[in-house]
Specification:
The protein is α/β, with parallel strands linked by helices. It has 2 domains: 1-79 and 199-244, type ii restriction endonuclease, domain 1 (Orthogonal Bundle), CATH 1.10.3250; 92-181, type ii restriction endonuclease, domain 2 (3-Layer(aba) Sandwich), CATH 3.40.1560. The chain is built from 10 helices and 5 strands; from the N terminus they run αααααβββαββαααα. A 5-stranded mixed β-sheet has the order 1-2-3-4-5, with helices on both faces. A hairpin with a 2-residue loop joins strand 2 (101-105) and strand 3. Helix 1 runs antiparallel to helix 5 and helix 4 (56-79) packs across helix 9. The protein is elongated and about 75 Å long. The termini are far apart.
């Protein structure tokens, strides 16, 4: 039986708008703060050379594309799913460590840990999550209510494994997770529809920040790691990256 049998669409849309604003604000801030020295200390100069990259713009394009790709998934996962799940579940932000949302319904306390995709756990982090659920269960015991812990994944699929001991918590992903929160089997589809035209509001601002960063990084790279004729000084780049 689902936690709810409905949801407030206006609250969902409001949560989406807030989450997307935070997503783009954070991503643009990260792009604005990019610095060629910090970036090149973390990059592999041998890989750039192996790919026969010969220009500052070519390397910067690769750096920026990789940076945005890695950053956007992390930032989006941090700001998007939790507030929307909280609105969908009509719950409250949890105070317990490792639990994001608490919902009290029909004599039960639902403790929900919201994750982005289904590949977030390793053995240690999963053990920590289980410990957090066990600690949170004491709240339900004190209130003399059933305790139902859930790990919810915003997207993807999670199959129940028949191997090993059964878990004391539920894992729900994508369609199943959103249906549990709302009682609507199609909510996972409606969620992307409810985003509507909101993302388009931020495209121009993000593109402008991206282009400014590209121009700035090309200039910095050229000044730091190019010879007078404009070719890359590979020895200087390697020494900067890996030398004393």
């Amino acid at each position: 039986m689902a936690i709810n049998n409905g949801y407030d669409e206006k609250q969902i849309v409001s949560a989406i708008a807030t989450a997307l604003d935070e997503f783009y604000t954070s991503l643009i801030s990260k792009v604005n703060e990019l610095d060629i020295d910090k970036v090149m200390k973390r990059k592999n100069p041998y890989l750039f050379r192996a790919k026969a990259m010969s220009g500052a713009a070519q390397i910067v394009d690769a750096i920026l594309a990789a940076f945005v790709s890695s950053s956007e998934e992390t930032v989006f996962g941090n700001v998007f799913f939790e507030p929307i799940a909280c609105a969908a579940a009509q719950g409250n932000k949890a105070l317990a460590e490792g639990v994001d949302i608490m919902v009290e319904r029909d004599g039960a306390i639902y403790a929900i840990a919201v994750k982005s995709g289904t590949s977030v756990f390793n053995a240690d982090s999963r053990k920590k999550q289980e410990q957090n659920f066990m600690a949170a269960s004491k709240l339900a015991q004190q209130a003399k209510k059933r305790f139902i812990p859930i790990i919810g994944y915003g997207y993807g699929k999670k199959r129940t494994s028949s191997r090993g001991m059964p878990k004391f918590y539920h894992e729900l992903a994508g369609k199943a997770f959103w249906a549990e929160l709302t009682g609507d089997e199609d909510f996972y589809i409606k969620l992307i529809k409810l985003m509507d035209k909101i993302p388009e509001k931020y495209v121009e601002e993000f593109d402008a920040a991206y282009q400014r960063a590209a121009n700035r990084l090309v200039k910095e790279f050229t000044n730091q790691f190019c010879l007078e004729d404009g070719s890359i000084d590979w020895e200087k780049l390697v020494v900067f990256n890996s030398g004393d």
